[in-house]
Amino acid sequence: MPTSKKFLFSGPDICTIERGVGFIRKMNHPFYDLLETGSFKIMQHHLFKILTMIFVLLTLCSSRVSAQTIYQESFSTHHRWNIKIPREQVLVKKDDNEIKIQTLNIELFNKLADDLSKVSLDKGYFSDLKFNREQYPQEPATVSFILSNPNIEMFSFYQDKDKKYILDFWKNEEVSFDEPIKKKEVQKPLLAKITKPVKANKKDSKKQEKKINYNKELSENKNPLSSIIATKKVESKGYRDFRYGASFIWDYRPLRPTLEQDVNLKSKIPASLYKIKDREYDKDEKEAHMQLTINLFRKEKWGLLAKSVKLYETKFGKDSNHELNEFLKANSLLKKNLKEQNKGVAASAYNILNNLLETSTNYELKKAIGRYLIQASLDRDNYIESLSFARKLFFESKEEFDKEMTIYSSRVILHCLASLKQNDKINEFLEDKYIKKILPQQIGHSYSSFALLEVGDTEKVIELYESRKKGLVGIIEPAILFNTAEAYFRNSQYEKSITLFDSFVKEYSYLNKAPHARLRIALSYEVLEKPIKKVVKLYKDALDRSPDDQIRYEAKLRYLGVELLRKQELAKTDLEKEIFFEMSPGERKSVSKELKKLLWLVRLRTYINKKQYSKGLTYLSSIPLNSLKPLRRQVFQADGAEIIYGLINEAHAKENFSKAIKLWKTYHDIYDNKVAINPHINFLVADSYLKLGLVKSFDETLENFQGLKSYATRVFPAWIKRNKDIQITNMLKELILIRHLNKKQWDLASTMLEKLNNEDKKEINYSYYRGIVDFEQNKHKQAADSFENMLIDPNAKNQLDMAQLANLITKYVESLHKTSQTERLVKTVKAIIKDLDREEVKLESLKNAKKRIHYLLIENLYASKQENYPQLEENAQSFLNNYKKSEYADRVKYIYGLAMIKNLKVEQGSEVLNSMISDKDVPGYLKEMAKTELSAIKLGVGI
Which distant-in-sequence residues (6+ apart) come within 8 Å of 909 by Cβ? Predict the structure, then answer.
């Protein structure tokens, strides 16, 4: 459970650190998720266990080493080393409590050693720093940081821009939450504070009388067994944290700034962009012929136009009118082709126009042709060709001081560079002084944000926005809003991200990125722990209002993550929501790799939360884990480890110890051994060996268990409540105690119990084991007192299993019976039986315990000086109805017959006793007792 507020560097959740992933980082947020984003930030609330290490390929390099810069940074959340070293020359890894930096470049190693030796270590994180080059060059030279604590974790990543390794270290502690944590309800004891008899003191007689009034306490306690029966745990209502939901998160592609269509090629031709003037046809024959050709073009007489152009060239050659004739020919082809859509004809026309663009000196003509060809290339998604045309138009318009066309061609250039992912070229182009002067600032900002976010430079996207946001008046360009919001999201600045995504949705709900923005808002609300109802509403809104199949299905899965995974107690109405797993035909076609992995995760965790561990294990085995990246794989392995724990826990609770061991042997190495340890599962396995009498296997398991003391325990995921949440050292002591009891080594067990300190006594349920030992040593009064102590103050962190509960109940009642505490026994047994009747008792050990104490109740009522024969008859009849074939049945039957006789049901009681006499299986001494009672009745003295 959370115990402190700690901060951590930004990065992914337990599992996915891929291509520089950023954690959920926010000032007041306790959870972490799985991000596949483009940068790492300082996370400001939460810690967790990273279950693997990141490897950098080690390659040989003979280049000389430049001066290295090494410096440390201390944060309230963690400690950081910044080491400027070439990425390709080193391998960074963690082995237990040792961080190693290995290299085959000896010059680099010497420089590292020299620089590091001058730096003082933070003793809170490191105990020593070592340098080893003895095996070089057969083995890499190694710099080793020795951690001061095994719970210190390391995360490393490389910043390409600064060419440096960053090593972050933090102390792994349990999760802390922002909201006040509700105190756990104190578990009710089995017998509702059964109080030991105390000798009355005159001064305190009233107080003592109140203390020993256990009869009232027993009668008022409605369900005294609810807290001690391990299989009937009541979870507090509410939701688990974000990590337990649909926690895989990935980057959304940046929004490319929109470029409005300049020319509608379905209805326009280049001539619509260029005014063809009438000629002075009365001037000379050439002008008259040209006017004729123009008239034919206007009347769309394409055949005659072609003949006219050919005749002109025959008569006058290719003179100054050649450009116009070619332009008219190309336009005639395109005009005719508007209906026919013949690619060959269009290609011929484009070829003519392209030649004119290259050779003409008429700027207006070239502008018209350039605009048309640019649009034609854009419509075909031929960005290389459209970029070429745009560049030509850019330089032409610049020379002609045509600012409007320069701006248009600039936008086309940026659009094509963005489409071709030429992000460096975009930044280079935008740095041009002339572009800065003429291009509207928001246009340049839009493309800069796109280019920067495309390469994952979220810091610069944010920096650019922060520096210009005061000047962003009026309606802001959509790309600025979306890309900056996405950058904030990747950097875990969720409040700012929500603000910009919300503005984007309000202004540009018609754009195809609006569904992405809605889903990001919902996800940010969830990560920020906003009210669950609001989160659910936002996911539903994203689902209902998304025309994008992929986003709609992601919204479904994230909605299910809240309703089916994070919710602690599932109702039938919740299970009906599983219908959202189903895909429409469009959704099925659009499922991406990331979405598929999220589907696997949510489906698997649904089985876990429904406690369908066998189905979960089957589903997990169908997931191609080996094809996943290591950190993604460990998400599933961690959940798999919980599934195995759930199955073993169930098998042990049902006293199917062989199944528990089989599960452990089959799946331990596949799942549990891949993640941080869960001590309780090791305890269950060791205990199962002992219960089966496999002492040698128990000893081997115990020895292996002892080796786990130096390992960090798993705090996430913890889908299943730990019935035993105590220190590993005390688990080991408890196993040794159980071994002594199993071998009936009462003296050894007693000695061991007395050597325990008070804290250890509380953790390992000292009162329970003390009571068992005292009982076996015939110290029944002390045993009863110890058992009562256990029942009065049960240990919530170390619950008894069913077998132990049955043992406690039986021996406690036996102790009361042997010490003749009849009145107390009667009240106690009534309460226990009443409580057990509320439970669905299936285990033989608990059934036997219930049967035994019921029998002892009858014997004590029978032997009681207070003649309560109706109660005796009622209990005997109940016993016989429930345990007809019990070993106590004949004795109880005799008491039952006798009780009826005492209750003046002489005929019925005599009938019972006579049936015993005629039953050959009834022991002889009981038959004789029955005969004696019947004889007494005949003589008139039996009643």
Answer: 897, 898, 899, 900, 901, 902, 903
- Outline where 819-843 has alpha helix (H): 822-838
DSSP 561: I
Residues recorded for the chain = 943
pLDDT of residue 190: 35
Q: Torsion-angle region of residue 524: left (phi > 0), alpha (psi -120 to 50) or beta?
A: alpha
C-beta of residue 804 within 8 angstroms of C-beta of residue 764: no
Residues 610 and 598: their CA atoms lie apart, in Å, by 18
Does residue 749 contact residue 773 with C-beta atoms inside 8 Å?
Answer: yes
This prediction has a pTM of 0.69
Taking the C-alpha atoms of residue 657 and residue 649, their distance in angstroms, rounded to an integer, is 10
Q: Could you tell me which of 21, 2, 9 has the C-alpha nearest to residue 632?
A: 21
Closest to 14 (Cα-Cα) out of 55, 43, 49: 49
End-to-end CA distance of the chain: give it in Å, rounded.
64
**Helix or strand or coil: residue 447?**
helix
Q: How far apart are CA 515 and CA 548, in angstroms?
A: 7
Reported as a pLDDT band with limits 50, 70 and 90, residue 183 is very low
Nearest to 375 by CA among 346, 333, 345: 346
> Where do runs of H (alpha helix) occur along 29-123?
106-116
Q: Which of 501 and 67 is assigned the larger pLDDT?
A: 501
Q: Could you give the 3-state DSSP secondary structure of residue 693? A: coil
C-alpha to C-alpha distance for 323 and 356, rounded to whole angstroms: 7
Beta carbons within 10 angstroms of residue 805's beta carbon: 23
Could you tell me if 145 and 110 are in contact, meaning their C-beta atoms sit under 8 angstroms apart?
Answer: no
Neighbouring C-alpha atoms within 13 Å toward the C-beta of 871: 15
